[in-house]
Input
Amino acid sequence: MSAGTGPVWAPRRMGGAQAPAGGRHMPPGLLDGVRQWLVESGAEPTPARVAQALREQGRVLGDAEVLGAAAQLRSELVGSGPLEALLADPSVTDVLVTAPDRVWVDRGGGLELTSVCFPDPAAVRRLAKRLAAVAGRRLDDARPWADARLPDGTRLHAVLPPVAVGCTSLSLRVVRPRAFTLGELVAAGTVPPGGERVLRALIEARLSFLISGGTGSGKTTLLSALLGLVGRGERIVLAEDSAELRPDHPHVVRLETRPANQEGAGLVTLQDLVRQALRMRPDRLVVGEVRGPEVVHLLAALNTGHEGGSGTLHANAAADVPARLEALGTAAGLDRAALHSQLAAALSVVLHLVRDRSGRRRIAEVHVLERDASGLVRTVPALRWGPDAFAYEQGWERLRGLLRNEGEGER
Output
C-alpha cells in the first residue's frame, strides 16, 4: 500500500557504488583493506578507528575523506548499506535487489529501477548475510535462503547463489510504524467513497471475515486498518508467521512463529500459536495469513464463541476462497464435509483485494458465504468496486441483513 506522497530519493551513480556522505568515493580495494582490519581487530568503524586502519595501509587522507569512509563502512557494517536511504523513504514499500546494479523499489505505483548500486555481487551477499544474522537467521552455503523479520519490522527474504543465479536475491518489505487509517485508504482509492460505512459496520457487528488477494495486494494493510476500528475495550490476539500487522489499538497481544535452531529444536508453528491464542481470552482472534494446518484450529475457534475473528488468505478471487480453504483443511486431515460444515458457521464475509496495472490496490469485491443444495459453501457477490461507490450485487440483501443490527449498510 502506498504510504502517501513522500520525498523521492534519487541518488546519483558514482562509478558503480554510492559515494560516502561528506567525502569522495573510496576505492573498493582501500575499503576492503579497512574492512578487513576492522574485522580482525574487532573495532567499531568510528572515524578514529578508520583513520588508524588507513594508516596501517600506508594511506593518509584528509578529514573529509576519513569521515566519508567511516560513514560508508558504518552503513555497510551496522546499517543497510546502499539501501539505507531507500528504506528510510516513507513512500517506499518494497526494496528488491537482483544484481549489483539492479535495485528496484515500489512506491505504490509499480516497480521502479533506482540508480543505487553495489560495488559487486559479493557486497550484496555480505549485506544479505549480515541482515539475516541481525534477524537471528542462518544464511550460508548450507542454508542458502532466509525469511525473517528485522528488529524494525522490515520483512527480509534472501537467497544466495547458486540457488539464486548470478547474484544474491534480496527482498525487503518495509512495515510502516503505524497502520493506515480507513480515511487514508479511502483517499488512496483502496476503499471507494462511502465504503468505509460498510467496513465499520462489519467490525461493529463482530462478523468473522477473511481478506483475500494476491501477493502485494494490500491484505495486511487493510486488515491493520480494520483492526484499528475494534472497540477499545476489546482484546486482540494476533498470530503471525512474521509480525507485520500494526493495528492502532491499545490492547494487542502479538505472537510470532519461530524456526527450529541448528539442532532442530525450538520450532513454533502458526498452528501452535493459534492453539495458545485460544487460551489467552481473545475478544478478536486474528491469523495474519492462513496457509496451513492452523486453518483447522481457526475454524474450530470461530465455531465456539470467538466472534469477529479475521485473517488473510492468498487467493485469485473471492469465489476461490472455499476451494482454497478446502485444500488447506484436507492437507491438515479434515475431510471435505467437515470442513464445509465448519466453514459455513465460522465465516461470514470475504473482502477481496486486487492490484491493477497502474499499481493501485483496491477492494475489488465483497462476498458473503452460504451453503448450496449439496451442503458445500460458496461465496455470493454482495458488493463490487465502483469509482464513486460500491455497486450492489445479488448477495447485498444478505450482507445488509448481517449488518442490520448496527443500523449500517442501508442502501
Summary: Confidence is low (pLDDT under 50) at residues 1-24, 406-411. Residues 215 and 314 are 7 Å apart (CA to CA). The longest strand covers residues 361-371.
